[in-house]
Amino acid sequence: MIKKVLLSLWFVLLLTAISFLFWKNEYKYSLPTPIPKDYHEIAMGSKIDLKCCVTDQRPVFIHFFNPECPCSRFNIPHVSNLIKKYGDRINFKIVVLNEEKNYTIEEIQKKFNAKIPVYFDEEIAKNCGVYSTPQAVLLDTSQNLYYRGNYNKTRYCTDAKSNYAQQAIDSLLSQTKTPSFDALALRAYGCTLPKCTK
Predict the structure, then answer these.
(1) 53 — phi, psi (to 5°)?
(2) d(CA 50, CA 145)
(3) Residue 33, Cα to own-chain centre: how many angstroms?
(4) First and final CA of the chain: distance in angstroms?
(5) Which of 8, 24, 56, 192 is deepest in the core (most CB within 10 A)?
(6) In angstroms, rounded to a whole number, what is the distance separating the alpha carbons of residues 19 and 11?
(7) Rounded to whole angstroms, how far apart are CA atoms 135 and 72?
(8) Alpha helices in the chain (DSSP H)
(9) Contacts by 154-163, CB closer than 8 A, 24 or more apart
(10) What string of pLDDT tens digits covers the 198 residues of the chain?
(11) pTM of the model
(12) What is the per-residue pLDDT for 176?
């Protein structure tokens, strides 16, 4: 009888541990990031003042990134591919949002295998209405907010049909009507700012 009770307790403990690990590593990142109480929404089409950044006449794509956020780490290959594919037509920038650890520009550029500008300025996130990582912001050539949202509905950016950021880039470059995005594209999913925890 004691063996059965101990065995049952062990199974319950094991199941609890597995459930906790699943929640910690998967489920909580599938939930929308809570909107902060002091959040100031920036409407699509708003002029974004990029005082921090030198821009040219190309559209600007800003990748909001936290090296400590699992979601940010999972989409590094996807963002790197976007930079390779569109780097001659889009002005890519990375904004690192992390209060826990210092990173150098070179460390971030190495992660993405790209020599693009890197900034460590939370004001850029506020100006763009970003409150989680990873997030994509695309500005047209007049620095108006064209797209702010997610990269893909899957954690590893593997669903070609939901490559939201890429669809926004393609739409802007072809000067067609802005694509209609669902809530998965426009709601924030990932790590909350400023400490980028979920």
Answers:
(1) -120, 135
(2) 11
(3) 11
(4) 42
(5) 192
(6) 12
(7) 9
(8) 2-25, 70-74, 76-86, 105-112, 122-128, 164-174, 183-186
(9) 155/26, 155/29, 155/30, 155/71, 155/74, 156/74, 156/75, 156/78, 157/74, 157/75, 157/77, 157/78
(10) 787 777 777 777 767 766 665 545 555 556 778 888 888 889 999 999 887 776 688 999 999 999 988 888 888 999 999 999 999 999 999 999 987 778 999 999 999 999 999 999 999 999 999 999 999 999 999 999 999 999 987 666 667 788 999 999 999 999 877 778 888 888 888 888 766 555
(11) 0.83
(12) 77
Query: Which tokens belong to 87?
Result: 């780097």
**121 exposure class (CB count in 10 Å sphere: 0-12, 13-18, 19+):** middle
Give bridge partners of residue 137 from the DSSP assignment. Answer: 62, 148
Residue 74 is classified by DSSP as H
Give the tokens for residue 92.
Answer: 């890519």
Q: What is the pLDDT of residue 12?
A: 73
CB 130 within 8 A of CB 64: yes
pLDDT of residue 197: 56
Tell me the two tokens of residue 161: 């049909």
Dist CA 30 CA 12 (whole Å): 25
| Calpha distance 198→191 (Å, rounded) | 5
Q: Is 3.90.79.10 the CATH classification of the domain at 60-192?
A: no
Contact 131, 193 (CB under 8 A): yes
State how far the Cα of 92 lies from the Cα of 60, in Å rounded to an integer. 6
Residue 139: strand, helix, or coil: strand
